[in-house]
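[Q] Does anyone have a clean C-alpha cell version of this?
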Amino acid sequence: MGRVTERRRVTRIRGGAVSTRPDTLVAEEPLEIRLNGKPLAITMRTPGDDFALAAGFLVSEGVLASAADVRSIVYCAGAKEDGTNTYNVVDVKLAPGVAVPDITLERNVYTTSSCGLCGKASLDAVRTTARFPIADTPPVRVSPALLSGLPDRLRAAQKVFDTTGGLHAAALFTEDGELLDVREDVGRHNAVDKLVGRALREDLLPLDRAVLLVSGRASFELAQKAVMAGIPMLAAVSAPSSLAVDLAAEAGLTLVGFLRGPDMNVYTHPDRVMV
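[A] Here you go.
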C-alpha cells in the first residue's frame, strides 16, 4: 500500500491484558495544489491518486470541464530546500486557450474535511459556475431496494479501511447498481475529488447517469462537487446539512440521507426514487 498506510507501535489493552504491538494507520499528508504554477489550495489527504484529486478539485471550482482542458499534471520537483521531491505538491497546467476563470469558490487556504462556504452567496456561486445543469439531463430513476444495497457494496470495496478503520469512502454507481469506481481518503471531500478527477481524465464528464454514495454525512461541499460534476443523485449513510439540502433543491440534485438498510430520507427531488 506504500504511503497509504504507516506502522506505529501501540500499547494494547484488552480485557485487562496489556501488550505492545505494531498498528497500521492511514497516512495523512498535505497536498498543495497549484494552477499554472500559482499556489491555489492545500488539503490534508491520504497519498495516492493525487493527480485525480487535483483535477477533481478543479472541476468543483469550475476550472475544468473536460480532459482537453488540461495540458499536464505533474509533481513539483524541488519542493524541499535541498531540491528533493516530496510528492506533496502538484501543479496543474491548463491547455492552451483555456482561460483561468474568476474562481468564485477559491480557497487559497488550508482546507479540511469540514471546509466549505455558507449562505446565499455560496448557492449563487455554484449555480453560476456549474457547467453541467442537472435539469438538462435525462431523468435517472432508482428504486429504494437498489439504493438500500449500495452501502454494503461500498463497505465491501473499502480495502484500506479493513486494515486501518480510519478512512472515508465514496463510490459511483450506475442507475442499475453497477459499481463504476470507489476511492478512499482520510477526507471525505478528497475521496469525491478523486472519483471526479478520474472521470475527467477519462473524459467521462458529465456523470449524468451516476449515483454518488458517500460513507459519512452529506455536507454542502459534497453536494457542490456532485452538482459541478453533473451527478443527479447523492446518497449518504449519515445526515445532510441544511445548506446541502438548500443547494440540492436549487440545483436539481436528489439528496438521500440516513441510507441504512431499507430506510432512508429523501430530502430533495424524490421523483428520482421510484416508490
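[Q] Thanks! Anything notable?
[A] The first strand starts at residue 5 and ends at 14.
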